[in-house]
């Protein structure tokens, strides 16, 4: 497994990120619906930071860290994270191009965000559609823990309300008490 070069995303990277996202959309239908403005989709208003994985001059992966409003979390997710909820960050816009897969880029991108969240004192979570089998397998393999599921207000590839699973970072996982 070769280690990717991961660096903060710059404004100059946005075109390459859109091209990479387009290749992911063609192969995996992520995102399910192509955004009208993919640059804006990659740069949501709550984005704190984004990073890219680069091979040579090609952007082969992307991830963002967003800050969530803890008051808007699903109740079961807030409970799983722990109350009262402090600052909550979310993995967002994580993808690796088909040609960049199999080299550990997604794992390395997740690690970068986990370190940044720890530096910021942010509890880290993510959500994933139940259609994202490869993503779910990755998250669970590297220690993320599913804590809640809920139906989203958007449609999956079958045209039904998507079922979304919520995960907390391995850093947020609390050990069960001995009394259980």
Question: How would you describe this structure in keywords?
Answer:
180 residues; alpha+beta; Aminopeptidase; seven-stranded mixed β-sheet; 5 helices; 7 strands; 28% helix; globular
Task: Report Rg.
Answer: 16 Å
Question: What sequence of helices (H) and strands (E) makes up the elements?
Answer: EHHEEHEHEHEE
Q: What's the helical proportion of residues?
A: 25-40%
Low-pLDDT residue spans? 175-180
Whole-number count of domains:
1
How far the N terminus sits from the C terminus, by CA atoms, comes to: 40 Å
CATH architecture, by name, is 3-Layer(aba) Sandwich
Return the average pLDDT rounded to an integer.
88
**CATH level 1 name:** Alpha Beta
How does the major sheet shape up?
A: 7 strands, mixed
Form type = globular
Structural class designation: alpha+beta
Strand proportion, as a percent range, falls in 25-35%
Total count of helical runs of at least 4 residues: 5
Across the major sheet, the strand order is: 1-2-3-4-5-7-6
Considering the protein shown, what is the CATH homologous superfamily? Gcn5-related N-acetyltransferase (GNAT)
Q: CATH topology, what is it called?
A: Aminopeptidase
Q: How many β-strand stretches? A: 7
